[in-house]
């Protein structure tokens, strides 16, 4: 499988849903607090008119316990090493960024755009998430994890959720948030279920037999092949990790200035703070050659551009949480095509409290169109239309071919009859197609 990287940059896209009467009862209060309907449970997470007014989801303790009990059995059935075939989307650390997760689900691949496929991305594509689903100072950790767990249950073979650093900590902000929302025994019960679910997450995934996905690193303890991970039993205990699994979750690449980083010999250096190892570029190259893989994909690092290559492009680090802790960093995720072509898609930082309608008004005032500035200047110099002049606009349109005009008219008709962002009713249709 030949690999080549294609880079794209994607601006913010938000799920805009009109408040309409639904065929199903997703907008109604959950009447039975002891049970949950899986499709309704997932759809509730997409019901976001705008982010400024969004206050999260009201969960009931018994509902969550029932949901997590089922999730645990799904993860228990998986091996420590999973396999998935392309095409697939690979997402790095989310750190509880629910808005950015929804943005990723709203960005369609080229094939879907060409075919004008109306199906939702979350229901049709395959995904690998590299761990760290929750994070510090994030309001929607619970919603982020519950949405991903719900999608895992609905589309079991299409979603792989790997265990990350945040899924190995016993005293996290996530626990504190749960205890704040569900005080007393109910909160302890829910946290206990989450700990068990996290302990059963797989440690690594292989895409198309050529791309290894891990949370952080590689291990010298792999003697024969990475397939040895399959034989490592997952444990219901939270902290006790098998040595290879610990390396996969905690081991990290050497920084360029660190001792041994530029050595031509494969080196694994013990890192005392995490009780695991660091590895140099030579170790990655040797590992890829030995395992016959083309690329290792990891996360577990904040990056200004959202991604970074190393080891002669045998290793790529991606980070999918733009504006992490209010920093101006971009996010990034990968798309692997059927042929093994790897595309890097960047996510720009967004104002998480901004109303989409306010943003549209700002664009109109500033003349922002999303096109390059040079292209806009050229267009203005050619057309120079007067305000309110219909003739100048129509003349500029006539410069195009007749086919383009007709095609544009068709698109306009479609836009007026059917909004681009689909209604919640269509989410139910997608959920029924596994």
From TrEMBL:
Question: Where are the stretches annotated Disordered?
Answer: 345-434
GO MF terms, alphabetically ordered: hydrolase activity
Q: What superkingdom heads the lineage? A: Eukaryota
Transmembrane feature ranges: none
Question: Compositional bias (Basic and acidic residues) spans?
Answer: 349-359, 366-381, 395-410, 420-434
Q: Which stretches make up the Serine/threonine specific protein phosphatases domain?
A: 59-351
Q: What Pfam families does this protein map onto?
A: Metallophos
Protein name, please?
A: Serine/threonine specific protein phosphatases domain-containing protein
* Gene source species: Caenorhabditis briggsae
